[in-house]
Design goal:
This protein is an alpha/beta fold. It has helices at residues 9-15, 28-35, 42-51, 53-60, 66-72, 85-91, 93-114, 130-139, 145-150, 161-173, 211-221, 240-244, 246-255, 264-273; strands at residues 119-124, 152-158, 180-184, 199-203, 231-237, 276-282, 296-303. It is globular and about 60 Å long.
Length: 305
């Protein structure tokens, strides 16, 4: 319940009926249980852990970088005819939106880098550096890449020690130890040191936060860009995610991703209340010439004057 006694949107979505009767990767008994609005019991969670590495990881460690890495690494053009639970989660509309978020946001970040001389970037909740490496991959295909990459200092901050170690290993393997760095820690904690940045990247962190908590998070992030009057790129989940893919949304949410999708109006208000001025909003479906509504709002903002 919210402070005014009203149900949060998450609670409302969890109480809506979702029909799993035709989802073929589940046995009939499991389909009936999934269609229930009740929380998953221990037996159902055990089933997921035994039959789906992705779902099992969500249930065990919701903050794990493993889930997004698995989705980002998927290569099939669409869901195979005979599909597993992992296939369902990865190739569903929700999985594809998450998959497309990586190149969409990275293209935007690459453009920002080409337009700025000082490129000290702090990627909060950045895991193993997927967005750093994808952005640099995009930049590598541009003219003048060698001079562009030299001005990049990209620090990924995350509480997942495994993701941090994976990122460090990849940075070394890709010859980017002078550009991509990793720090283990909780950036929301006052004990975490401020890293002055020209740009903060905050991809996915706000997805599990109510508007009120998201405002608090963004207020805490301000310290990283205040000194340099920097900007922020943040991606958060929209209500369209449930409308387009209630089947996988419900699984993700009940297993441990307590998703809090917002309307675009709510996203705008969150940034305004946290003291930011929105410069632009994109989605994971935008093309070079057209804005297309998607499941994510990719927000570019700066601190209010």
């Amino acid at each position: 319940m919210s402070e005014n006694g009203r149900k949060e949107r998450f609670e409302e979505l969890m109480e809506m009926y979702v029909d799993y009767s035709n989802v073929e990767c589940f046995p009939e008994r499991i389909r009936r249980e999934l269609s229930s609005t009740e929380p998953y019991d221990e037996d159902l969670i055990k089933f997921f852990k035994q039959n789906s590495p992705v779902a099992g990881e969500i249930a065990t460690n919701p903050a794990s970088d493993f889930i997004t890495r698995t989705v980002y690494a998927s290569t099939l053009p669409q869901m195979p005819p005979r599909y597993s639970i992992d296939d369902l989660l990865v190739y569903s509309p929700g999985g594809r939106a998450l998959f497309n978020r990586l190149p969409a946001a990275s293209k935007i970040l690459a453009k920002w880098i080409t337009e700025h001389e000082s490129c000290d970037i702090v990627d909060l909740g950045g895991g193993s550096g997927s967005y750093a490496f994808k952005t640099i991959e995009i930049l590598s295909k541009m003219k003048g890449f060698n001079s562009i990459v030299k001005r990049i200092s990209w620090t990924s901050v995350d509480i997942d020690s495994g993701a941090i170690e994976l990122g460090k290993a990849r940075s070394k393997a890709d010859g980017l130890t002078g550009q991509v760095f990793f720090e283990e820690g909780n950036f929301m904690s006052k004990k975490f040191p401020t890293i002055d940045a020209d740009l903060v990247v905050l991809i996915g962190v706000l997805c599990g936060m109510t508007p009120e908590v998201a405002v608090t998070c963004l207020e805490k992030v301000r310290r990283f860009i205040e000194t340099r009057n920097g900007e922020i790129y943040a991606a958060t989940l929209l209500t369209r995610s449930f409308e387009e893919d209630p089947i996988c949304f419900r699984i993700f949410a009940k297993l441990g991703w307590h998703l809090k999708p917002k309307t675009e109006e709510e996203v705008r208000k969150v940034f305004n209340d946290a003291g930011y001025e929105i410069i632009d909003i994109h989605s994971e479906r935008d093309t070079e010439t057209e804005r297309v509504p998607g499941q994510y709002a990719i927000v570019r903002a700066r601190l209010k004057a």
